[in-house]
Amino acid sequence: xxxxxxxxxxxxxxxxxxxxxxxxxxxxxxxxxxxxxxxxxxxxxxxxxxxxxxxxxxxxxxxxxxxxxxxxxxxxxxxxxxxxxxxxxxxxxxxxxxxxxxxxxxxxxxxxxxxxxxxxxxxxxxxxxxxxxxxxxxxxxxxxxxxxxxxxxxxxxxxxxxxxxxxxxxxxxxxx
Length: 176
Prior knowledge:
Elements: H1 10-15, E1 21-25, H2 31-35, H3 37-43, H4 59-69, E2 74-80, H5 86-100, E3 104-109, E4 122-126, E5 130-136, E6 142-148, H6 151-167, E7 169-170
């Protein structure tokens, strides 16, 4: 098995994709986001104006839009607990910018995920050739990203993502 290596930024990896790419988020909290100004503003009732991309749009959104523009789908699956945490409500409210970039987003409650095997870290898969592991601490703070190329491991992550995607609910049908 090959050793994980430090990856390129996600935006660069997404731009190389020729086949559907996707990620699975399984965290119920993100200490940095929950303590951040954007999350506090959301809980105070502020909402983003999607017509004004400048405050939120970043290289990842641009890469997703360009990739989707080449007819390569970008999927994001979020696995969540019930009731949802503050971070979950924040993620759900901020998903509009992912959708504006052309990303497809689905949600899966842990209750509905029974019988599925989940990755130990939040992965992105790229062209069934790479997997990016995002490692977080217990309270949800980002630790590091690693990249793996072992074909059997990449296939198992891609297969898990496919099963989660099939069972998950599209964003526009999922209520908080």
